[in-house]
Write a structure and sequence with these properties.
Length: 305
């Protein structure tokens, strides 16, 4: 850390439901260090968020005072402190104006990034944590356009003018887990390596299915029952069916668009495969964009210069 740019200026916390990541961030938004823990908000014993926080970041605070900004489910009703939602369209400036301060033990101050809400089909939709990642992605020159964030609750987000304009949530990952583990569809599945063939067949069925999902789900049972697909293909067929249905619903009318995938690993690769089957181009956002988002929000709030 010899240059000015490499001196720590900010700590960013990405505190979700199942995991927690902390970033030590330098003067131009670069990540200097990362630590993580499997202590998302649902895995904190006795809801002692203060103790988990101090244990994770205390080594970075020895001998220095740094602003600390946190995003994710830590600001939900089940988290450390519930914060209100702001409405779309919003971006870094709006998030900066609506930061919520919180004092941890020892007089350490945090700034919580609030969530966002929109109204779709007469009902509210919400996000917590994704907004910081999108701010980071736009700040990393990914620009305006359509973003998909695969996960338990996938988000399809439209960005215009550098701000989140609208979004929609799809419970694809959670539905997959529930169907696989708690319905008859899982009884003919066997664990094994990824079946590209099974996933492709399922994705094609989902993409062409329109409103037939509730009918086509039963094929997850009948196809292996009649030997049309093997039991080692069945889970990936279900995955493809659900992801294909999601893409068919969310990406209608996006011909020629390039979809930015915000995520890592196997799930992001599945979305890229299914998007290609749908005739759509995709690209992947860089890693740790949430830290970039933390920096841009903190800078807009005057916490870092």
């Amino acid at each position: 850390m010899n240059s000015v740019a490499s001196e720590p200026r900010l700590i960013g916390l990405d505190w979700g439901t199942s995991s927690l990541r902390a970033f030590l961030i330098g003067g131009t938004g670069e990540v200097l260090d990362v630590v993580s823990a499997p202590q998302g908000i649902m895995h904190v014993e006795g809801r002692d968020f203060d103790a988990v926080f101090h244990r994770l970041v205390q080594p970075w605070l020895r001998g220095r005072v740094l602003p600390i900004i946190a995003s994710g489910m830590i600001t939900s009703r089940n988290g450390w402190r519930e914060t209100p939602y702001i409405r779309v369209p919003s971006g870094a400036e709006e998030l900066a104006r609506n930061l919520v301060t919180h004092e941890a033990s020892g007089g350490v101050r945090l700034w919580f990034v609030t969530g966002m809400t929109t109204e779709r089909d007469g009902a509210p939709d919400v996000m917590r944590g994704e907004e910081a990642q999108i701010v980071g992605a736009t700040g990393a020159d990914m620009g305006d356009g359509v973003y998909v964030m695969p996960g338990t609750h996938s988000k399809w987000i439209t960005v215009a003018g550098g701000r989140i304009e609208d979004y929609a949530t799809y419970m694809t990952g959670e539905i997959f887990g529930a169907l696989k583990s708690h319905t008859i569809l899982g009884t003919l599945m066997t664990d094994g390596g990824f079946s590209s063939e099974g996933f492709h067949l399922g994705a094609e069925a989902g993409l062409s299915g329109g409103g037939e999902l509730l009918h086509r789900l039963f094929n997850v049972r009948t196809l292996p029952l009649f030997g049309r697909i093997g039991p080692e293909m069945t889970a990936d067929y279900l995955s493809g069916l659900l992801i294909g249905t999601e893409i068919g619903a969310a990406a209608g009318g996006l011909d020629g668009a390039t979809i930015t995938i915000v995520g890592r690993g196997d799930l992001a690769e599945r979305y890229a495969m299914a998007l290609a089957l749908a005739g759509l181009k995709s690209r992947s956002a860089p890693e740790n964009i949430v830290a970039r988002g933390h920096f841009l929000i903190a800078r807009a709030a005057g916490l870092v210069s």
